[in-house]
Design brief:
mainly alpha; 2 domains; 7 helices
């Protein structure tokens, strides 16, 4: 899934505006990816780099959970986030436990077992690892949005 499509889906699910995205990006405050005043302002929803998406998700974690207990910052690289990475960062930011995750997936139309959910959070290369498809991630985001609406 393209970064801008993914970011748009996250914004819809979490009711985030363009201003909220800029605030999350600024909260993380990684100077290397922030736009300068001389650059034209491109909408993050139209043109979102891997670094910007990563910083927005880390900013969301920082805004919702606070800084890490050891004060360290996660490594920022330009690699694309996998759907599993996005799901993990959303789980951390929103402080979701397994039962909540299963209910959100069910609300979005995906029925997962405990072990299937756990497989989504395993390290790639683990024999129980399961890649999170675009459809499954979108079902999670739809389910999250539906749970907010009720």
């Amino acid at each position: 899934m393209q970064n801008n499509e993914l970011l748009s889906s996250i914004c819809n699910a979490l009711n985030l505006s363009e201003g909220d995205l800029n605030a999350l990006l600024a909260l993380y405050n990684d100077k290397a990816i922030l736009q300068t005043e001389s650059e034209p302002q491109a909408s993050l929803l139209e043109e979102c780099s891997n670094e910007q998406l990563r910083c927005i998700l880390e900013g969301l974690i920082l805004a919702e959970r606070g800084p890490r207990s050891d004060g360290s910052r996660p490594d920022m690289n330009s690699e694309a986030l996998t759907n599993n990475d996005v799901l993990k960062k959303l789980r951390i930011a929103l402080n979701l436990e397994q039962e909540n995750m299963l209910l959100i997936f069910e609300e979005g139309g995906a029925t997962l077992t405990d072990s299937e959910l756990g497989a989504l959070f395993r390290k790639q290369g683990n024999k129980h690892f399961r890649a999170c498809s675009d459809e499954l991630l979108l079902q999670f985001l739809d389910g999250f949005q539906s749970s907010l609406d009720t």
